[in-house]
## 1
Amino acid sequence: MSIIIAPSILASDLSQLDDQVRQAEDGGANWIHVDVMDGSFVPNITFGPVVVEAVRRVTDLPIDVHLMIVEPERHLRAFANAGTNHLTVHYETCPHIQRTLQSIREMGMSPGIVINPGTPVNTLSELTHDFDNALIMTVNPGFGGQSFIETMYDKIRRTKALLDHTGSNATIQVDGGISSETVKGCYEAGATNFIAGSSIFKHKDGIAAGIHALRDALAGNDH
Ligand code: DX5
Ligand code: ZN
């Protein structure tokens, strides 16, 4: 399965967003990850559809939107219209999650589900054919630059076992504290899709070097 590196623009220099996205693209990014936070589901406030639209004008790479907002179903259309390709909603915010995932697909986007570190893997068990991507948060959402929670390796492994057991082709994505130290363990546990903010945009040798460091840490695997 091919590896996806998705730089999270939350950690970028937002005063130069177009340059930062272009550098990520030139450095070999596969997707661009956009963190939408509402100050309610998570403490922080970040971007809305207008920023997705701005990223869309700068790159043809798939845009991966991670909604950390209450009542996400009210905003799906706006993110579709802004040019989102992959749209991921938190299990914890959706009382009718199956319907929400279906709506995302009907709007022409690829649906993803995301669970917080404290939410059990078996919440996914009735839904494994309704999403294309399962995002396992490896920090509590809300901020960049946090430390990877070590117990999440085993959670990724159990997610992979659930997907295999139910015959799902969904991929596993991880988000939070992904660096050259943690990426390989996540891959070995079953993740193939890696979101990274700080380790890419704040890499001492630049954005491309941050992406290369992740790929080098995975070297020897199929990517
Ligand atoms: C956290 C966000 C992440 C964040 C990751 O709530 O979902 O996408 O940007 O940042 P790092 O890679 O710095 O942990
Ligand atoms: Zn994210």
## 2
Amino acid sequence: MNKTALITGATRGIGKQIAITLAEKGYNIAVNYRTENEDLKIVEQEIRKKNVEFMAVKGDVSIFEDTEKFVKEVIEKFGKIDVLVNNAGITKDTLIMRMKKEDFENVINVNLTGTFNVTKNVIPYMMKERSGRIINISSVVGIAGNAGQTNYSASKAGIIGFTKSLAKEVASRNILVNAVAPGFIETAMTNVLKDNIKEEIAKTIPLKRMGSPTDVANVVKFLASEEASYITGQVINVDGGMLM
Ligand code: NAP
């Protein structure tokens, strides 16, 4: 029986590439999405080409009842979830002087509470199987901080604390929990920046380029694999050397 992976926010960007990369490794794939659009159809087509089973489950990760419902749907179809990737995330960048309370709360609710919501619903099934991998997508700004991102960096730092605590709680059940902290990756999230700003940032990165969603997906693939079976509670930076 093929292993199964659930990836949140996987209609585009990093999540989409993680879904495709795990499909290439033979995982049956459940893609969580919030907005139904052309992107979802494209992911489905790409994954079906890999000859694995595919399902799409709708739901906003910040709404507990949504996550309860879509995790159940995945279990009903696939029977188990071997790998959970908490990828869904948003930014609402601005300096604290201008940041509204809602800007802070929305980002925490999606990025951090969303990670809790999905994990809370998946963990009983992994406990039963006495195996599982949870990979949380954090960010280098959760480690280093970044002006204009108090909300986002707090959510991503929170994910690191969540990852380490959960790793300690569930290690005895052979459930491994790790975080990946991407640096500056080319997706819709960073496309809001003007080209000259992106070039300036790239110059400060030792590898002198932005990362690609594939750079991140390859590390997630490794953390999901047998080869990573002695790694838990870690944060792996995928950032071209931005943070050392
Ligand atoms: P992206 O292109 O904006 O994609 C984000 C995805 O998350 C979209 O599919 C979006 O769906 C989904 N999403 C947002 N809110 C959601 C919610 N409440 N419930 C379910 N799905 C939701 O971003 P990305 O760059 O691929 O980022 C993916 C992850 O990597 C995020 O956690 C991000 O913080 C992290 N990251 C990115 C970078 C970077 O440089 N790009 C760096 C560090 C960390 P909709 O279409 O519905 O909005």
